[in-house]
Design brief:
By secondary structure, this protein is an alpha/beta fold. It is built from nine helices and 13 strands. The strands form four sheets. A seven-stranded parallel sheet has the order 3-2-1-4-5-6-11, sandwiched between helices. The termini are far apart.
């Protein structure tokens, strides 16, 4: 199968590309900048450009759509880029899949209900996708990625739990926790996330009216995650700071792994095991 992966140069995208290649599929990365990847082609284009999206989609058997503008508090002050990329870009993919009859997978977010531009735009895309599947019989699977972490995740500009805490601990600095740290953050290892996304494309599951939740269902608080990182690194300390814009005190961002039963996926990497190679990677590549 020839698969187009939008955002294939990104953190999750790079693992999806590797997963597809290991399974023997041909992969083209659709991105607005060239980042060569072994054994793949690159289609240089902007997801906001409907003509480019149509051209790329038409020459492939299926699409995994990961391109997007990330960030919770980072997107509050300037919503336009999120709207243009996440909503218009995803609509371009939906229209192309409808026009050319291609299967696809779109990634959404676990904190879809939060009031920040990122979450709002991703929720809008969920609704649009379900509408297309219902009204036009498109086959676009939706996968909510919970708190994805692992080696190669960027430390900046978007502040994510794992890289932020790990780098602070490695530098023996304060791990900055927003609020009281009792937020629930369902952490999913990036290789597990990639496998779920690929299965959502390849498995004949027939689920296009519901959403797959790529989360472990494990109720770890941010405090618990920070303490585990400090334990594994061997240094670091916690400091509490005010909540950020676009996020909520004691929010529960939790997946339901039962939704993954049609994909026959239930072997999650534990947080403790996933943090080991992740910390090792940051120690070797970011210090």
């Amino acid at each position: 199968m020839r698969v187009l992966v939008s955002g294939g140069s990104g953190f999750i995208g790079s693992y999806v590309v590797e997963n597809l290649l290991e399974k023997g599929h041909e992969v083209t990365i659709f991105d607005h900048q060239v980042k060569p990847h072994n054994n793949t082609e690159t289609f240089l284009g902007d997801i906001r450009d409907a003509t480019a999206v149509n051209e790329a989609v038409s020459h492939h058997d299926a699409v995994i759509h990961l391109a997007g503008i990330l960030g919770t508090s980072e997107t509050v002050s300037n919503p336009l880029p999120s709207i243009e990329t996440n909503i218009i870009g995803s609509l371009n993919v939906l229209q192309a899949c409808r026009q050319f009859g291609k299967k696809a997978v779109d990634i959404t977010v676990g904190n879809y209900w939060m009031l920040n531009s990122y979450s709002i735009t991703k929720l809008a895309v969920e609704k649009l996708t379900l509408m297309f599947n219902k009204e036009y019989n498109t086959k676009v699977a939706l996968v909510r990625g919970l708190n994805v972490y692992g080696p190669r995740q960027k430390v900046k500009p978007v502040r994510k739990i794992a890289p932020s805490f790990i780098m602070s601990a490695l530098r023996d600095e304060e791990l900055l926790i927003n609020g009281d740290g009792e937020q629930i953050a369902d952490m999913i290892y990036v290789k597990d996330m990639a496998e779920i996304l690929v299965r959502a494309l390849l498995v004949d599951h027939g689920v296009y009216d519901k959403i797959f939740e790529a989360g472990t269902g494990r109720r770890d608080s941010v405090n618990t995650i920070a303490k585990e990182i400090i334990k594994q690194v061997g240094k670091g300390r916690i400091k509490y700071i005010p909540m950020r814009q676009g996020e909520e005190m004691r929010a529960v961002v939790l997946g339901d792994p039962k939704t993954l039963q049609p994909l026959n996926f239930d072997k999650f990497t534990s947080l403790e095991d996933g943090l080991k190679p992740t910390i090792k990677w940051y120690r070797e590549n970011e210090l």
